[in-house]
Amino acid sequence: MFKKLRYVTIGLLVVCGILFSNLFLQWCQNDLSVDLAVKFAFFWHTEKFFLASVVLLVLFLFLVSLAGSLLVGTSIYSLFIAVIGFATYMKMSFRQEPIYPDDLKMATQFGFFKEVLGTGPFLLLFALIIGVTGLFVYQFYRSFFLSKNKQILRIVMLCISTLGLLYISHFNDETNLLRRAYNKTALWIPYSQQMNYYNTGFVGGFLYNLRVDAMDEPSGYSKKAIEEITKKYQKKTQAAKSQEQPNIVYVMSESFSNPDHLQGLSVTGNPLKEYNEVANQTYSGKMLSQNYGGGTANIEFEALTGFSMELLNPQMTTPYTMLVPKIDQLPSLVSLTKQRGYDARAIHPYDTSMYKRQDVYSTLGFDQFIDQDSIDHTQTIENNPYISDKAAYQQVLDLLKEEQNPQFIHLVTMQTHMPYEGKYNDINYQVTGDENKASVENYLQDINYSSQALQDFTQELADLPERTLVVFWGDHLPGIYSDQLQEKNTAADLHQTEFLMADSKGKIKAEKKPVTSPFYFAPDLFQRAGLKTTPFYELLLDLEKIVPAFEPRMYVDNDNQWHKDLMLNKSQQKIYNDYRLIQYDILQGEQYSLQSDFFE
Q1: Is the pLDDT of residue 3 over 70?
Q2: Which of 331, 342, 336 lies closest to 408, judged by CA?
Q3: Where would you find the membrane-spanning parts of this chain (predicted)?
Q4: How many domains does the structure of the chain reveal?
């Protein structure tokens, strides 16, 4: 009698724990709002809440059976839920974006988490992880000495839960019963992952982002269709105006943007004074950034490949980690410059494993990847832990001076990366209109140092004998502005950064561009600098004429009007469809276009 009562009690406690953990995830996702979490679970989306609880129960049973101990399995499960919940809260706060399955691959980025969390909280979390891991190893060893009946029960539970997790991982299959159960009440919103998570719950949104193709096959895709497109644009390729092969330097500046454009924010002084002096002498303007507060790797993917994230399935949240390492041959600006005799080098003064850059840069074809451990110049500014832009530019200059072949150098800076508060003791700028005053003012000083470094860099390039072209842009706004300030601004305000294209010999004409997208950088540069274009770049130039900039749910027309839907006439739609077919062909299809010189 007492034994049965004990089992019933344990069962009830497990069920209550699973429900509580699910509620905890909702609480973290909804900015620590108990009211929203409770309403989601028991009033608005009860069916989805209990479906998610079933998924969590399967995970719990797997951990318990794997450890061979209810106590240890519960400890591992609880720590995992706590970390995922906290990470969700942090990411939603800084980037208005939930945790995706692919984010779990960053679990080993200890340096990054230490900088974000602070030394104390990071060490506490690390100690907890070490402690629970040690407890698991000890209990796993002891589990082999369990009684025969308990071993049988454990193995049966482990097999059932493992098969359950494998089945759940195929959530996006049309025949998946769990997905069908969700579909009865779920409203999936492909264009907004944030709303997906809000409408279906953390677990539902998480599952929606498992195992997905890069793109759905466009109508009319075939080898013949691709051949027709490649032949059409091969005829349009522009020859080079000279045989010159200038150096090309890409600079993706972390979180570089103009805070003066934000409504409700008042800044004393001009932190971008030096940047504007450079920009006003050349082709410059605004760049449409896919995300607010993050998405660095996605902007980099677009700028290097010429492929748009807008055309990818919404679950393809980070091509660098989810797609590129699986592709044997990916045409890009890297492969193009190498085919034309350039040496290609990437510089990122940080950890090589972030966003799988080591693997990605290898796939793209870079000859060398210089990171924080191999860079020669490691100077920082005051309390800023990151290598300064000035030091990074010096590394670029060293390469340009030493190497004989023309150079393509891709630099991803780190100086202006979060967290910002406490970076600088001497701050020359003050801000009003945002409660995060300290972080914003440190950020202003950061971008001022970045502006100065860029101006010094372009001046030193002018003294070199070889012509050098520079494409500089900010990847996204920093995720530091308060909710109140964000509410005063439109999507356009929060998704535009700065860009410019500089020529050390001054041959690029000064012109202002209202807004562009990063996948247009290379064709624009080649056209304006008088370099030989490619058929693919000609396609992009045609596309730019009809849609000057676009990202998911953000489309800018030639009158600089912003739309949530793409509006094209029949002839314009043909160009857009050609681009979509080519992108599908390379990223998901048979790569028929590589059989020609379409990308050369």
Answers
A1: no
A2: 342
A3: 49-71, 76-94, 122-140, 152-170
A4: 2
Domain presence at residue 554: no
What mean pLDDT do residues 407-429 have?
95
Please name the residue ranges forming H helices in 104-147: 110-117, 119-142
Q: Which residue range forms the structural domain that includes residue 268?
A: 244-533
Helical pair 389-402 and 437-462, crossing angle rounded to 10 deg: 20
Report pLDDT digits (tens) over 524-566: 999 999 999 999 999 999 999 999 999 988 999 999 999 989 9
159 pLDDT exceeds 90? yes
Q: In what order do the strands lie in the sheet with 247-253?
A: 368-370, 343-347, 407-412, 247-253, 468-474, 496-503, 283-288, 511-516
Give domain status of residue 129, yes or no: yes
pLDDT at 191 over 60: no
Alpha-carbon distance values, 224 to 245, 355, 542, 585, 595 (Å)? 35, 36, 21, 12, 12
What pLDDT is stored for residue 240 in this prediction?
67
Q: Are 436 and 481 in contact (CB under 8 A)?
A: yes
The Cα–Cα gap between 163 and 315 comes to 24
The amino acid present at 432, given as its one-letter code, is T
Return the higher-pLDDT residue of 174 and 157. 157
Say yes or no: 302 and 445 in one domain.
yes
How long a stretch of residues is the chain? 600
DSSP reduced 3-state for 514? strand
- Collapsed DSSP state (helix, strand, coil) of residue 14: helix
Q: Which of 516, 533, 550 is the last residue of a domain?
A: 533
Taking the C-alpha atoms of residue 471 and residue 415, their distance in angstroms, rounded to an integer, is: 18
pLDDT digits (tens, 9 = 90+) for 488-505: 999 899 999 999 999 999
User: What is the C-alpha to C-alpha distance for residues 247 and 337, in angstroms, rounded to an integer?
Assistant: 10
What CATH number corresponds to the domain at position 430? 3.40.720.10
Chain centre distance of CA 314 = 13
Two tokens, residue 88: 């969700």
Tokens of 210: 């498992």
Q: Report the C-alpha gap between 417 and 479 in whole angstroms.
A: 10
CA distance 393 to 251: 9
Of the candidates 501, 520, 503, the residue with the CA atom closest to the CA atom of residue 512:
501
* Residues 239-293 pLDDT 10s: 767 778 999 999 999 999 999 989 999 999 999 999 999 999 999 999 999 989 8
**DSSP characters for 227-275?**
HHHHHHHHTTPPPPSSS---EEEEEEETT---GGGSTT-EESS-TTHHH
In a domain, 255, yes or no: yes
C-alpha angle 354/359/364, rounded to 5°?
A: 115
- Quote the tokens at residue 31: 């900015």
182 shares a domain with 35: yes
pLDDT for 116: 65
Q: Does residue 594 sit within a domain?
A: no
For residues 388 and 413, the answer to whether their CB atoms sit within 8 Å is no
